[in-house]
Design goal:
Layout lengths: L11 H22 L7 H17 L20 H7 L4 H10 L8 H13 L1 H7 L6 H8 L9 H13 L6 H14 L8 H6 L1 E6 L2 E7 L3 H19 L2 H21 L7 H6 L3 H4 L2 E3 L2 E3 L4 H10 L5 H8 L4 E3 L4 H7 L6 H9 L1 H5 L6 H6 L1 E5 L12 E4 L2 E4 H4 L11 E7 L6 H9 L5
Length: 436
């Protein structure tokens, strides 16, 4: 976000404290509002340390520069292998059942769960000998019990969804508010205290579910709108996407320069691994330990003469400019090619299509295409429940949220600044391209 909003500066530690605070608030109201006929206060009290520690540690393994470098964590499924070394067979079975269609947890969530189990589970067991730290790993990764056969597993599923769920959880509530405040954008107002004060665990269709009372109905849609605003207009902004790409390319080139010739990915493997969390590790002339954003910038600055992207990053003077800047423009330009296959074919052949417009070979080769997939939030069936008129009902039964396209995917095309005068010609060539 900082290339777009320089004031948007906060770190994972501050965010984790915020999530911990909201978890404390949520748990207080769950205990206060939940009917003891459904679940006793003593049973709930048992889960309080698990819930709060999961909230505090949910991002403990996050990569430097947040999601920009997250892809490097799970190269060759390293993160999942790391996690599976520390969990029981039941967790593995549920994980594979939940995520067999590719929609798994983020790589940093997998890594955070593994880091917690490897480095902190023993201390947790000493403090709370009657509790299972693997439940914390479930909460961090969103790995619910499939199926939840016992009341104990149903309670755990409820708390898992409130740490890492599809609809509303304390992690999302904190980053929506925090990123809105840090950027200074005019996002929707979310009354988090009103929302969490309405939270309870209730029975629906013979299972325990997290539910909000009717007093919070107006806030629920605000949470979705606030999250989607950030993904549409900030996280997917063309400037943010461009600088994220610069940073990613720069670290890949840095790895080739600093790694041994026989293993050009050595730097990446060390920076984004459990190894550098535990001890200083040498790569070339560098010693890496608990790498942070500052460490990455230090390494990049050392090789600024060798990596052209570093100059762009530090000067904030991009060499390339976008042909269009918003999803709305993209839709208008390609409205005659509404089929996703056609659009994907154009994306794959951008340079081929534009070679008659941008004839200079060096300029043509510099063209960059970036695909964007905003994580648009919608409420699916059985993801959110409301306590209304002495009964619990799925949210979709009583509310008709605005129609939102969930699986939005589009792309930006960036051309050299020297060819900016050809923008309209490039757009015409792409929109009129014949795809067979």
């Amino acid at each position: 976000m900082r290339p777009l909003y320089p004031s948007a500066h906060h770190d994972r530690f501050v965010h984790s404290l915020g999530v911990y605070y909201l978890a404390r608030l949520a748990f207080h109201h769950i205990k206060e509002n939940t009917d003891t006929k459904d679940i006793s206060s003593d049973v709930l009290d048992h889960y309080k340390p698990l819930f709060l520690v999961a909230a505090l540690m949910h991002d403990c393994g996050h990569a430097p520069f947040s999601h920009t470098f997250e892809e490097f964590y799970n190269r060759n499924n390293r993160a999942e292998e790391f996690l599976f070394c520390h969990v029981d067979p039941k967790f593995k079975d549920d994980y594979k059942h939940n995520y067999n269609r590719g929609k798994g947890p983020s790589d940093h969530e997998i890594f955070s769960a593994a880091i917690f189990l490897k480095h902190y589970a023993t201390a947790f067991r000493q403090l709370f000998p009657d509790q299972d730290p693997i439940v914390i790993a479930r909460m961090i990764t969103g790995c619910i019990h499939q199926p939840a056969k016992t009341l104990k597993e149903q309670v755990e599923n409820c708390l898992i969804l409130l740490i890492n769920g599809q609809a509303i959880d304390v992690d999302k509530l904190d980053y929506i508010q925090r990123d809105t405040w840090a950027s200074g954008t005019n996002n929707v107002s979310i009354d988090i205290h009103r929302l969490l004060s309405a939270l309870e665990l209730s029975m629906f269709d013979n299972k325990l579910v997290p539910a909000f009372s009717k007093s919070a109905l107006n806030v629920v849609q605000s949470v979705l709108d606030g999250r989607n605003f950030l993904y549409n207009w900030i996280y997917s902004h063309h400037t943010v996407c461009y600088y994220s790409r610069l940073l990613s390319e720069a670290i890949k080139q840095l790895s080739r320069l600093l790694s041994p010739l026989e293993d050009t990915d050595r730097l990446l493997d060390v920076l984004f691994s459990a190894e550098s969390f535990e001890k200083p590790v040498s790569v070339g002339n560098s010693l890496l330990y608990l790498p942070s954003d500052g460490d990455i910038f230090y390494l990049l600055k050392q090789r600024h003469n060798d990596i052209k992207e570093i100059g762009e990053l530090l000067s904030r003077q991009p060499r390339l400019v976008p042909l269009w800047k918003t999803f709305a423009e993209f839709e208008l330009i390609f409205e005659n090619k509404g089929d996703s296959t056609q659009r994907e074919s154009i994306r794959a052949k951008v340079k081929e299509i534009l070679h008659e417009v941008i004839t200079d070979t060096s300029h043509l080769q510099a063209i960059t295409t970036l695909q964007v997939k905003p994580k648009i939030a919608v409420i699916h069936k059985d993801e959110l429940y409301v306590s209304l008129r002495n009964s619990v009902v799925p949210y979709e039964r009583i509310a008709k949220p605005p129609a939102v396209e969930e699986n939005i995917s589009y792309f930006f095309v960036f051309i050299p600044r020297e060819t900016a005068h050809l923008t309209e010609a490039c757009i015409s060539a792409l929109s009129g391209a014949k795809i067979y």
